[in-house]
Amino acid sequence: MVEAALVGIYIIQNDTFRYVNPALAHMFGYQPEELIDRVKVLDLIHPADQEGVMRRMRQRFTGQSTTTPHTARGITRHGEVLHFESLARFVMYQDEPAITGTLVNVTSCVLAQEKLEKHRRQLKRLSAQLIASREAESKRISQELHDVIGQALTAVSINLAHIKQDLSQDAPPAIQERLAESETLISQTLTQTRKLSLELRPTMLDDLGLLPTLRWYIHQFKNRLNIKAAFTTNGIHQSFSPEVETVVYRVVQEGLTNVARHAQASQVAVNLSYAAEQLAITIADDGIGFDVQALFQSKNIDDRLGLLGIEERISLFAGTLTVNAAPGQGTTLTITLPGIKPQSN
Fold first, then answer.
1. How far is CA 77 from CA 29, 47, 81, 102, 122, in A?
2. Which helix (H) or strand (E) holds 212?
3. How far is 104 from 153, CA to CA, in rounded Å?
4. What does the alpha-carbon distance between residue 325 and residue 284 come to, in Å, rounded to a whole number?
5. What pTM does this model have?
6. Which 3-state string (H, E, C) describes 120-184?
7. Which of 12, 53, 227, 311 is exposed most, by the fewest CB atoms within 10 A?
């Protein structure tokens, strides 16, 4: 049975193979008789892993190590790298101390994991590029709205004011009425254009920094929706990189948008704290709440687009999102960004 096993089996004494089954020998490209009593264990181990393998062997012989599996790399007869997992224990073999154990070839699993990790890194880079591209486009459109359309609307408003002054008091009422309607329409459009420009990318985020921008945005949110909104900070005594501040602003913006759309809340509290190189954002409301498990199991992705947007942005900083909610008990979002350093002046 041992000879026919698919798992490699070995006995080691004096750092030499005293027994190997065919499965182990074939993993390394040998016949059993080419290894038994002829080859030192370290001759089959990758140079970078030899010290660790030897240390574990010594621990097995002295009883210092428990019987737990470990992974290492071997070198086959043809010079190829073999990833293996081994489980060994101390025994007496022919009245002499020895190590016996099993060895499993995990090369395909390791290579698959490395490939998956490579794809994850590529996806992370693409996601970062996409987010940066969206931010740049939002900034460009915001500037266009402010500098081009906003200024054009302002010029039209001034022209209408001059026309109104030039009209005689005897101008037909219909003309005066249309002129007044035009002034109102221009004013409303100008207000909406400025609002849209600020929502796309508030210039104060670049000019004044994160905290003033968040205070302004939360104040606007409170006035627009007639919701009590509080903003507090802890440990924020410095600025952060533009990338970090943009992510924090967008997370708060997305979180409050979710409150406005779904929570039916009467009050919301936003807290931003910083300690031990960790930035934490908490957004808590007293709204209707929801079943967290049901939401994340829902096939309707539209139900959780806001949370997905937050997760996408914070993933660039290895951030985490925790959702605490229950029907009728409100919702609390906690976002943490680790390894965040203040921006050096």
1. 5, 15, 10, 20, 34
2. helix 210-225
3. 74
4. 10
5. 0.63
6. HHHHHHHHHHHHHHHHHHHHHHHHHHHHHHHHHHHHHHHHHHHHHHHCCCCCCHHHHHHHHHHHH
7. 311
